[in-house]
Amino acid sequence: MDFTEPDRLAGHRAAASTWAERHLRHEWAQREQETGSHHCPELHAILAREGILGAGWPAEYGGSEVDPNMAAAIFQEIADFGMRMDGWFTTWLVCQTLLRAGTHEQKLRFVRGALRGEIVIVIGYTEPGCGSDLAAARMKAERSDDRWTLNGSKMFTSTAHLGTHVFLLTRTSAEGPKHRGLTMFLCPLTAPGVSIEPIHTMGGQRTNATYYADVRVPDSLRVGDVGGGWDVMRVALAYERGIDLEGSGPTLVDRLAEWTRTAKSADGAALFDDPSVQETLARAALEEEVGRVLMARVRYVSDAGGLAAVERAMAKLYTTEAEQRRSSALVELIGPAAMLKAPAGPLDGAVEALFRLSPVGTIYGGASEIMRDIIAERRLGLPRSRPAG
Amino acid sequence: MDLSLTPDQLALADLFGKIFRTESTPARIRAAEPLGWDSRLWDTAVSAGAPTMGVAESVGGGGASTSDLAVVAVEHGRHLASVPLAEVLAATHLLAGLPAGHDLIPDIALGTVLPTVCLRPVTGTLAPLVPAGAVADVVVCFDGSQLMALRRAGARPHQPSPATFGSVPVADLDLRQGWSERRVLAQGAAGAAAFDEAVLLWQLLTAASLVGLQQQSLKMGVDYVKVREAFGVKLGWFQSVQHRLADVSTAGEGAELLMYKAAWAWDTAHDERAGLTTMAFLFAAEAAYETCRASLQLHGGYGFTLEYDIQLYYRRAKAWPLLLGPTRETYRSLARTRYAVAPDSGPDTVVA
Prior knowledge:
Distance between the termini of chain B: 48 Å
Order of helices and strands of chain B: HHHHHHEEEEEEHEEHHHH
Largest sheet of chain A: 4 strands, mixed
Oligomer: heterodimer
Radius of gyration of chain A: 22 Å
Structural class of chain B: alpha+beta
Radius of gyration of chain B: 20 Å
CATH superfamily of the domain at 200-338 in chain B: Butyryl-CoA Dehydrogenase, subunit A, domain 3
CATH topology of the largest domain in chain A: Butyryl-CoA Dehydrogenase, subunit A, domain 3
Number of strands of chain A: 8
C-alpha cells in the first residue's frame, strides 16, 4: 500500500496566502464569532467577482478560468482564518445537484446566478417532526395549473436569513411508499408567506426555523419530477459531505501537547510530566490518526470512481464519535481553566469551543445510528432493521 | 495513494492463508494448548521460508518488505497459528542487521534455530515471561548497555512454560545457566538502536496478527447472528446487535489501515515510523479484544464454553499484546516519542 497523498494545493499556497492577506478582514471573523452566522456577504462578493466561486464549473453556466486547486487553497486559507462558508457550501451542493437533475433553464439561472454571487441557496430538508428519517417529510405542496402552493415548516435552515432561495423537500402525495410522494422545489426566501425565526445553538452557530404559509411558486422552480424528489435527494445527499480535503498544520491535540510542556500542575511540575497527561494525549493522537486513515480511504475509493458509501459511513461515525471523546478528555486534562472562553482560555478557548461544538457532529449529515445501520446492512450483510416505508 | 495489496502480496496471503487454514485448525490449536506450540506447523512455516523471508537477499534471506511480513502475520493471526511468528521475525531482523548475528541466519532459515527477543530490557539475571521463551534456541536480550545473544542446544520445548490464559509459550529465563553460547551482538547506542528497532518490528507484526484475529472473530460473530434465532427472528435483526457489530467492524478496518500505514512507513523510512507503529499496535490490540468480547457475547452461553472457538480468540486477543507490558506504559512512551521528550528511565526496566 502507498499512503502518500500528493499535496494538490502545494503550488498554490503561497499565492493563496497573499490573497488572504490582501482580502480577509478580522472584523468579518469577529462578526462571525459574535453572530454565529457562517456566511459573509462581503467576502462572498469578492470570491464571486474574482471568479473563485466559478473555478471548475462549466463555462456555459458561468464557470471561470481560475484553477480549482487555487480556489481550494483560498478556501483553506479562509478556514484557517477562522471563517466558515456555509452559505457557499450549501449553494455549491445544490448547484451540483442542479447540474445533474435540473432543467437547462434552471442551470442557466441558478448556477450562473450562484457563481456571480447573486444567489445563495440554503437547505430545507429537516422538519420539526423529522430529521434522520427525511423521507417522512410532511411539508405540503399542492398544484393548481402551473403554480404550486407550499405549506409547512423546516428546521435547521442555516443561513436562510442571508440567503436568496431554499431547496425544499416537500410532500406532493400521501399515497404509496413515503419516499415516492416527494417533490423538490427552489423557493425564493423573499416570497410572500415565508418567515424566518432564528434558532441559537450551544456551538454558537445561529440557524433558523423557516415557515411557509400559502407560499406560491411557479412550476419552473420544481427540481426533478413530481414524485421524484427522493431521486433528486439521493444526488444531493451524495454531495452533502462535499470535498474531503485533509486539514493542514498541527492538530488540536498536538497544540495542546505543546501547551502542557509549559503549563504547570498543582505541584509546580510541567503538566506533561504527569503520566496520565501523557496517556490522554497519546490516546487522543491515536484516535486522530485512526480518523485520518479512515478519511484517506474515502478519498482513495472516491478518486477511483467508487461511491464509498460504507467507507464514508465508517469514517463519519468514527471521527465524530472520537471528537466527542476527545473534547471531554481534553477538558479534563486542562482542568477548570478549560471552561474559560476565548480569549482567556488556553489555546484561545479552542478546547472550550470544541466541547460545545462536538455534540452536533454525530447528529447532522446522518446521525451515528444511521451510519451504524448502513455499516451493518452493507458491510456485514445484516437485515434492514428500520421499518420499510 | 494506493490502498490495495499488490498481486504478489495477495499471492503471499493466499499461500500462508492456505497453510494456516489447513494446519492450524481448531483441533490443532486445541492440541497445541496449553503451551501454544505446534512443532509440525513450525516445520511447514520454515519450509515456506517464513523465518528469513524479511532478511535481505545478500544475507541469505527472501528480501521481503515489511508490508509483506505484515501480510503473512495477518494470516497467522486469522488462524491463531501456534507458532511465535512476530518474535522470530523481529529477532531475525535484529540478527541479520548486525554482523555478529549473520552466521545464525542459515540455521534460522533451516529451522534448526528458533530465535526470540526479550521485549523489555533486563537488568538482573532473570528475564521474566519472555515471549516464545520456552521454545526459543536463541534469545536476544539487552541489559541497557550490551545486546547479547544466548544460545542453547537440545529439543524444544527447552523448559516448561507456566500456564497462561493465552496459551503462549512464555518462560522465565535464567540468564546465568543452561546456555551453550553467549555472544555480544552490539554495545551502547548501537545495541540500544538495534534492540528498539526489533521491539518496534515485533509491535508491528503483532498488530498485524491481531488484525487477522480481529477479522476472523468478527466473521464468527456475524455468521452466528445470521443463523441463531431468538424471539422468532434472527439475532442479526436486532439493532442493538447490529450496532455493536458495526462499531467493532469500523474499529477493525481502522486498525487494518493504520497497521498497513505503519508498515508503509517502515518500507519508505518515513520519520513517523515509530509513532505509527506503536499506534497501530495499541489500536489493533483494542479492536481485537473488543471484537472478541462482542462476538463472544453474541454467542450467548455457548460462547463461554470450551466447545466453541470464539474463546480461543478471546483469550489470545488479550494475551498477545500483553507480552510487551502494561498498555499504560506503551501509551506514555508513545506520547514521549511523538512529542520528542527524553525517555523516562524508570518503569520500563525490569529488575529481577
